[in-house]
Design goal:
Strand content: 35-45%
Number of domains: 2
CATH topology of the largest domain: D-Maltodextrin-Binding Protein, domain 2
Structural class: alpha/beta
Distance between the termini: 30 Å
CATH superfamily of the largest domain: Periplasmic binding protein-like II
CATH class of the largest domain: Alpha Beta
Radius of gyration: 20 Å
Number of helices: 8
CATH architecture of the largest domain: 3-Layer(aba) Sandwich
Length: 282
């Protein structure tokens, strides 16, 4: 049977690039790529088993965690991370008319934020409009001489457009981590583990106790981020990545067993390998 792979569409997004690369790294059987509208929709495809796996961005080096992905993962604790992939992000400004005529710039909110300083310097009067994806932005500017889009220069939907500027991202080292999700728990293999937890109460030292538990196991945290629990003001969910030693199965068990008594809810997304792509054309 073909492997159905959900990703943030339409075709031509950075998520599609990541999905193609992850399918190759994991040697997915006859992958069929399913573009979805919105991050929650992508994750629900895997959670509801309409697709076998899903590819979503989880962290950007400039803008931090992707809140829509983190919130959706907390809502679907039955999902596990199979592999992570880091790809460089090199944004291009594309349009039909000259750059001097541009009065509106369209893109995904993350892409707009990652190019905010360039836009302020080069197109200070242009109105910035958010779209569901970079590929959708590119589709919407075709044929308009006063609109431009921010997206990937390697997108497959650039017909009829010309590149007005490249690269335009503010940080040269801009990169995004994507994860491959599935609803079946995998063997505990890989150098990175991800988990999320909420605490029993918002009391002095509660978070410190949980973090000290990780430190006492000799595990290094490579990421920590908080998101509102959406239940009440001041209550948060904490997302953490840790680096694992070679004997990761034992470390995984110790980590879960040590944290569980300290947490109201603990969601473990598994341990998995992480790969980086260095091509500047990604």
């Amino acid at each position: 049977m073909p492997t159905r792979v959900a990703y943030l569409g339409p075709a031509g997004t950075y998520a599609e690039q990541a999905a193609l690369a992850l399918a190759g790294l994991e040697k997915l059987h006859k992958p069929v790529f399913v573009p979805c509208l919105g991050m929650h929709s992508v994750i629900e495809q895997a959670a509801n088993k309409n697709c076998d796996v899903a590819v979503v961005p989880i962290e950007n080096s400039v803008e931090g965690g992707v809140s829509a992905t983190l919130d959706a993962l907390w809502q679907h604790p039955q999902l596990f991370i199979r592999r992570a992939l880091v790809i460089p992000i090199r944004h291009s400004l594309v349009g039909s008319g000259p750059i001097t005529a541009i009065s509106e710039v369209l893109s995904h909110p993350q892409a707009l934020a990652q190019c905010s300083q360039w836009l302020k310097t080069n197109l200070p009067k242009a109105l910035q409009l958010s779209t569901s994806s970079t590929a959708e932005a590119i589709r919407m500017v075709k044929g308009s001489p006063f609109r431009a889009a921010i997206g990937s220069r390697s997108g497959n939907n650039l017909e009829g457009l010309k590149e007005l500027a490249y690269p335009i991202n503010d940080a040269a080292g801009n990169c995004t981590r994507f994860v491959l999700l599935q609803s079946e728990e995998l063997p505990q293999e890989g150098e990175r583990a991800s988990l999320a937890f909420s605490l029993h109460s918002n009391s002095p030292g509660a978070l410190l106790e949980a973090l000290s538990c990780i430190a006492n196991l000799g595990l290094n945290m490579s990421r920590i981020e908080s998101r509102p629990s959406k239940r009440e003001l001041g209550e948060y969910v904490f997302f953490i990545d840790v680096e694992l030693p070679e004997n990761n199965a034992q470390a995984n068990n110790k980590l879960k067993n040590s944290l569980k008594p300290l947490c109201e809810n603990l969601v473990y997304f598994g341990s998995y390998p992480s790969t980086e792509i260095y091509s500047s054309e990604a």
